[in-house]
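**Discrete fold encoding**
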Amino acid sequence: MIERYTLPEMGAIWTEENKYCKWLEVELAVCEAWEEQGKIPSAALKRIKKKVGFSLQRIEEIEKVTKHDVIAFLSSVAEKVGDDARYIHLGLTSYDIVDTALSLLIKESLEKIKKDLISLKDVIKAEALRYKKTVCVGRTHGVHAEPITFGVKLLVWYEEVKRHISRIERALEVISYGRISGSVGTYIHLDPAVEISALKKIGLKPAKVSTQVLQRDRHAEVIAALALLTSSLEKFAIEIRHLQRTEVLEVEEPFTKGQKGSSSMPHKKNPVRAERISGLARLIRANLQVALENIPLWHERDISHSSAERIIFPDSFILADFLLAETADIIKNWIVHPEKMKEDIALTRGLIFSQRLLLTLTEKNISRDEAYHLIQEKSLKVWKENLDFKKLILADKKIRKILSPEEIESCFSLEPYLEKIDYIFERVLGDES
């Protein structure tokens, strides 16, 4: 039996050579299963395994004539093996090999994606702990809301990545199936025991029932997992892009020695890598639409899915792998500006404490509507006239009748916003924190 390929780069997994290696792996597993059934002589199997191989160049030459890649592959293998090649592909149809091998390729790719996700999770966790108590402004609708910590923002990402690891594990489970059941899935020229044995040898399970292909809802689920994953990576990238804006400048993606931001403006440091993540994530979401449309095939199978899958699987996996590496590197090496975060907290001159003031007023037995009206009136004046919110509150006679100066001062402290941070981290990380 040939060795399973463990390739370090995602692109190498999706080469023509590795595809044919997987095809050969399936063919040899079937030969071994037939030998166990007494259908192939043991001596012939030994000769096959000793001589077996293929030539990429020869496959291309044959396919130009046959217009059939599996036949071209088998012909190239036969030229290496000789007379014993009659035992190869015994009772099989093309997609017994192609679909089963595709499951192996996807499985190998998902395992690498899972490994990359675990690395990203660890990078985010380290940064979340690092900035656990680093206070910054929280924004809703792009507008200052209430204080948060940068660590909590990252903890949200951490938990999201954990969910993606679970989705990738589910995708691994759903694609870890093959089918070696003949032209329409009825084992007319096969023994089901051959399928069970052959698939076990290569780490797959037999689909309980199939047509000429594995059903494409499995494959769509895989692409959906990648689309969800890379949509989250884009979400992280958008946050970085917003935080790097000149008016904010709380976080910057790495800017390496010798890097240039603009051909015309030497001062520019643009979030180009985060923007690239946003752009490429769109391609994987587009590929999901193709994967969904591959599900409804004619009868027991048509070939409309095949050509599209030759594009969407390599592209989606290679892109997802790249985006994961980019995201991890950006977060590991980004430049965070805690002092600028403090400055931005003060940007609205105390307005971010409006809810705390509102709740303090309602504790004094006045209606929420009345309290809201008092606070909003002063808040809008701050917006309009560029005034200090706390000074306006301290000078307001109605509010001073209700709250003492000390009670008002306490509403403008950042300390209460840190009280539940440890609880949040403990709930997410548990003993890890």
In short: The mean pLDDT is 94. The beta strands are 135-140, 143-149, 177-178, 205-206, 251-252, 335-336. The chain has 18 helices and six strands.
